[in-house]
Amino acid sequence: xxxxxxxxxxxxxxxxxxxxxxxxxxxxxxxxxxxxxxxxxxxxxxxxxxxxxxxxxxxxxxxxxxxxxxxxxxxxxxxxxxxxxxxxxxxxxxxxxxxxxxxxxxxxxxxxxxxxxxxxxxxxxxxxxxxxxxxxxxxxxxxxxxxxxxxxxxxxxxxxxxxxxxxxxxxxxxxxxxxxxxxxxxxxxxxxxxxxxxxxxxxxxxxxxxxxxxxxxxxxxxxxxx
Amino acid sequence: xxxxxxxxxxxxxxxxxxxxxxxxxxxxxxxxxxxxxxxxxxxxxxxxxxxxxxxxxxxxxxxxxxxxxxxxxxxxxxxxxxxxxxxxxxxxxxxxxxxxxxxxxxxxxxxxxxxxxxxxxxxxxxxxxxxxxxxxxxxxxxxxxxxxxxxxxxxxxxxxxxxxxxxxxx
Lengths: 226, 170
Fold this sequence. Notes:
heterodimer, A: alpha+beta, Gyrase A, domain 2, 4 strands, 56% helix, B: mainly beta, Jelly Rolls, five-stranded antiparallel beta sheet, 13 strands, 11% helix, elongated
């Protein structure tokens, strides 16, 4: 009897070992290219930046999912459903409660993280996109000329670099007023009617902004969620 | 064991609820009469229907405020504006720019589009703008700026460009 028991145990161990070996053998070919890709990407190279952005995006996605679940739980705890007493008529459903300051603050943190992620995507595109010589040259001239106009008083263009679908502009401002009106003025220039995003890039006492500007009629290269 | 099973079932239920939620998007339609001229003394004509016309011979620029509909807890990252206009002008277009600004007025993102369907003296058409509203904080505001060409004359007939309405989806 004991021999039979040991025999069954031995067979089970062998089956487990075989299954483990098979699964490892099956997983290896899939894992290898990713490792090779990572090994090939030199630090600071476009491939390295792309993979870094991808990894950060995945991490943010996971964090956001966790945050969404937590916020739902917080909201469900914060709004207990009142139980009607005996003989008491069911009260009309109350209107949706206004979001609390804490909810708004959490949402604002999530939005800011997402904004940084999109900006990183724009930055990566600005570094990796090839240069369409004709369009880039013409647009750089157009932008440079526009900044000499009256609408741009108080703002100085310090750098403009156009690629295929977008340009990056670095601008310094004399006052907050000049920065506030900059995008509106830029979008009024004939030939620049696309999409534009401005990010304040202040450096000490110096007011500065970075602007990502798309080709007219096209959207900026970033992945917005619906 | 029972505790962990209960936790798992609760998590599954929460996930199911989340996936069952519809995409929270607020939609609102506004008439062109909401818009205000920013072209000095040149004023648009507002019809009783709420449509806004440029009955002058010069281009008119108008700005229209838009109510924000930020969805809690899952806000949308972009906002879409669909403009319905009449563009009878042969060489110029009705062009609109949607802008999201911080509450102090600093514009942070803009998108523009024009009536590129060619001149049409009788039928209104629609063009859309997609704005990355995620770049401004939740208290930021959105506005629409439109440029309407002056009247277009063909023979003995004169046609005005019209901003009839715009639909905002956030």
